[in-house]
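Hello, quick one for you while I still have it in my head. I'm working through a protein record and want to make sense of it properly. Would you mind checking whether the tokens look sensible for this chain? I owe you a coffee for this, so here goes:
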Amino acid sequence: MKLSFNINNTGGLQLFQLLRFICFLVISVVLAKEHYSDSDIGDWETFVFVSGALSFFWVTGIIQSLLSLYNHNVAFARHTSGNGKSPELFNTFLLLVMFSILLVLLIWFSSSVNLFGAAKNVPYLGPLLLYFFLSNTTPLIEYIYLLKDKPGHIYIYGIVSFALQTLFVCLPMMFGLDLIWAIWGLIVLTGLRFLLLLQLLWKYAEFKFSWTYIKNHLYVGYPLIISTLLSGSSQYIDGVIAYFAFTPERFAIFRYGCKELPFVVMMTSALNNVMIPAFGNRKNIPAALAEIRRASLRLMHILYPLSILFMLFSKVIFGQILFNDSFYRSADVFMVYQLLIISRIVFPQTILMGLKKNRVILCAAILEFFLHIGWSIFFTHFYSVTGLPLGSGLVHIVEKLVLIWYVYRHLHIHPDSYIPVKWYLFYSLLISAVFILIDHRVIYII
């Protein structure tokens, strides 16, 4: 029964993330095909980018620490009160609100004094601050459904929510209104999500403030926040560099192309999360390694061919099907990002997490962070917009090689015990060769 719970809720969250990706993709397509200028498109992408770049790490850290504290923590003897309501949910909401307000004040202050010399260039600052506050609290909704074992609600919420978001944002564009009306459509929809969150808190949360719980939550959450910031900020680091290095038009080209295939990220992340508990019992380690090897090989047979297929047709997809001729250059960025599958499809970090060797992962994340900045700037100097993902891809590979070396050297686990090495090398060389041939116009699809 517990296995069914995990599968159902995991599927619900995967569908939710996929719908989110599709929603913003549809919005991008409509924006590109309507009357808006490249500068307008750049403003929209900057609006979305800034709101995400300043929040993804701490929202993720707070939510993930909630998942570990929900059933047992030092503040509450039971995770629910006698009426079935949870004080953890209320206090987590307060943390999200607190972080949101602090960041809103920071954005406003940096704009007022022109901090860093670039804040004044953030478009639609007033609406951005309102959207920033609302959008960083509403991710709690799907995790309330998760904790309450309501995967069906996650499905319904995702479908209805993102269908309405697409409608609220795209209709002003299709009627030829100024971009600000589409932004207000996004804000209105996010406001409706916020009202739903308040309703769920009223139903499931006990409004009992606990400073002890807040401190415990922050203590558990801050390593997750730092790790997420360092290791999960790849596209945001690239985006920050692109924001300062490129014109709004070139920034839009980069933002439209800097996308991995969503099912690559979701399927590899799911395998990672499912296998971590398998290393809790050391007697099960050989079987867990064999399962990672078997499951990763199955993913290789599926995800590598799909990634290559999308690379081959990227020019057609970006220049003809989805967008227009102005975004042919985005296809080059997109192709480079597909090479990230080379690092995502191997799982030394799963072993380390399962064995609670999190400090090793943190050290690797710190190394990746500094290499990422240096290499991305270096490659940008020579290859412009495609240099950013090229540097990012190489850094991710280096990070995984470091983790593979550590697992082999200190844990005495041979790579072949959890990586189908021959198939991995074959597919990695194949996708690299396809990329080089496309880049040198040896392979070209009109």
In short: Residues 2-227 form one domain. The mean pLDDT is 80.
